[in-house]
Amino acid sequence: MSRCILKRYTGAESCILCCSQVRCDSREVCSPSDDSDSSNPPQILRHMEPQSVEAGKPVRFSVAVSGLPKPEISWFHNRQPIHPTKNVVFHFDEVTNIAMLIIVDAFSEHAGQYTCTAVNNAGEAACSATLTITQEEEEGNLWLCRLQTDSTETTCFSSCKINSPFSSTCKGMS
């Protein structure tokens, strides 16, 4: 890493610069380095968080990375490589260095461990998180009919939501 004092055109010191991308001459004038050997291994600056979503809802994993040269990002589900589809989208924000994996409609087959790897010629970094898919409470149509034997009247109920084995809510219809 080079450590140089930059001088303004008036000769006053403006700051101390520490950077692997500059070189300084004997007059303490700094210029961009043309050294192509400078590289930094990837680092995970912000790890993925475990996610839990209802079936059919979107989910997003995001990872902030650094490294020079810019690392190649790969995504894995249960240690298997993921390939982008209409339902699984990769995005990398060049300004913030955030890599994202977006699942548009997450279902039970998407549950499991997700891993993001960042690789360049100086090294590799990875982080993982788990996705849990919860089942949305399904509202079923349960038809209950009661026949009265002393007349021809029939009473039926529809749209019963069974909340638990001990309670239910029904809208009646005769």
From TrEMBL:
InterPro entries cross-referenced by the UniProt entry: Ig-like_dom, Ig-like_dom_sf, Ig-like_fold, Ig_I-set, Ig_sub, Ig_sub2
Does the keyword section mention Nucleotidyltransferase? no
**Single GO cellular component term:** cytoplasm
**Keyword annotations from UniProtKB, A to Z:** Cytoplasm, Immunoglobulin domain
What residues does the Ig-like domain cover?
42-132
Q: What is its main location?
A: cytoplasm
Compartments reported by the entry: Cytoplasm
Against Pfam families, the record matches this protein to: I-set
Q: Which PANTHER family match?
A: IMMUNOGLOBULIN
Q: What is this protein called?
A: Ig-like domain-containing protein
